[in-house]
Amino acid sequence: MSRTTIRKWKTFSTAVLHYANGSIGQVTASLLHHGEPQQFVVQGERATIAAPWKVIASSQKENGFPEPNPALEAEIQALYDQSPELVYTRHEGQIENVLAAIEGTEELLIDGRAGRRTLELITAIYYAGVRGERVPLPLTPENPWYTTQGILAHAPHFHVKSKSVENFADGEIIVGSAGDQKKT
Question: What is the C-alpha end-to-end distance of the chain, expressed in Å?
Fold first, then answer.
């Protein structure tokens, strides 16, 4: 006789986002992922693109299974190759934009309202995970997680830091994924 055990994992989460226009999205996060890969993936009807750059395209066979579509991959790759090189990567572009906006030479690309919506989405994902229910956005002041105090009062603490290092022997902290490390 086999036995199935269901466990609540505290290191992995997936949120499915349902939009008013019928679209869906998925946000997945893991606190235990060897090599710390970080990527942004967009799954489309006929292809997937990701950052860091990767493209995969497929067509559907008569039996419903996918088969690679190298022609579409080549078409998408050609569009990518024609794109201009990025002037900035990582946070450098965001910092430059904020400084330029302060100086009045550029429009601010991400304002406080956009930041609020991002935090609201993250808060709603946590709320839904803890409560096991759908969360409509935007959050209203009646939502118990609307404020920082509300989050602190209701959110479980999954991880408690148990170790601390005051001084590193080599004086360096490695930031980023295994394939793209920067030392500070």
Answer: 54
